[in-house]
From TrEMBL:
Keywords: Hydrolase. The lineage of its organism: Bacteria, Bacillati, Actinomycetota, Actinomycetes, Kitasatosporales. PANTHER family: AB HYDROLASE SUPERFAMILY PROTEIN YCLE, MONOACYLGLYCEROL LIPASE. GO terms for molecular function: hydrolase activity. This is Alpha/beta hydrolase. GO terms for cellular component: membrane. The keyword Chaperone does not apply. The keyword Cell inner membrane does not apply.
Length: 251
């Protein structure tokens, strides 16, 4: 399967990997601005999100992205990942470090992170609503939980709509498959890739801890916690995050 994707701009390639609360549309603000900084952008929908169908067999999101880059003739790229997209970016960098020029990770997750009571309570409520086929309520729960206090009504509605679409696609699938793959977290210390890691002060403690751990492990990492941000800072203050990414990704 080739992931549904878009390309725009000219110059060094940056691949935008979305959170599982959203799909590739979460990068709309950056999509309009980053090409002016001299970047060629690629964004894609993981399986079961946006316009990419759910999978009918086991798969790996990291392998899907690498195959997409092969199909596009892209040998090297910077990876920009939000939440699960950040975890997938790390997985790609471990599988093919020679292909990754930089990592920009926004509130990334790690496969071995213990779950906090706050996140466990959220997961339990989401599962309850999903299993009751209350998909609209589950999507609303996600939009409220993952956005920080500065998110406006339009942003909240956009996240709700993306999550609801994903829930509908995934609930209609004949069999559920998870594209996430575990990786050896301590092996991140062997990467020499420059990395910018952002976390949000209003995020779940799990992801704040993941950002700190990732920055400690990656030798070339710089971590910055954003005091105003929740879990999706690129949507909460898009202009500020776009400027940070442009500064990090361009010479």
């Amino acid at each position: 399967m080739t992931l549904t994707h878009d390309m725009t701009g000219d110059g060094p390639v940056a691949v935008l990997l979305h959170s599982t609360v959203c799909d590739r549309r979460m990068w709309d603000p950056q999509w309009r601005k980053l090409p002016a900084a001299g970047l060629r952008l690629v964004r894609c929908d993981f399986r079961g999100y946006g316009e990419t169908p759910a999978s009918d067999a086991p798969y790996s999101d990291a392998d899907d992205v690498l195959r997409l880059l092969d199909a596009l003739g892209v040998e090297q790229a910077a990876l920009v990942g939000s939440s699960y997209g950040g975890r997938t970016a790390l997985d790609i960098a471990l599988r093919a470090p020679h292909r990754v020029t930089a990592l920009a990770l926004l509130c990334p997750g790690l496969p071995d992170q213990d779950e906090s009571p706050e996140l466990a309570a959220f997961d339990a409520r989401e599962t309850e609503l999903f299993e009751a086929d209350e998909l609209e309520k589950a999507a609303e729960l996600n939009a409220r939980a993952w956005l920080g206090p500065e998110a406006d009504t339009a942003t909240t509605e956009a996240v709700r709509a993306m999550q609801l679409h994903a829930f509908r696609v995934q609930s209609a699938a004949a069999e559920e498959h998870d594209g996430a793959a575990d990786f050896d977290v301590p092996s991140l210390a062997g990467l020499r890739t420059p990395a910018l890691i952002l976390s949000g002060a209003h995020d779940f403690p799990d992801f704040r801890a993941c950002a700190i751990r990732t920055a400690e492990l990656l030798p070339g990492a710089h971590h910055r916690e954003l005091p105003w941000a929740g879990h999706l800072p690129s949507l909460e203050r898009p202009a500020e995050i776009t400027a940070l990414l442009a500064d990090f990704l361009t010479p």
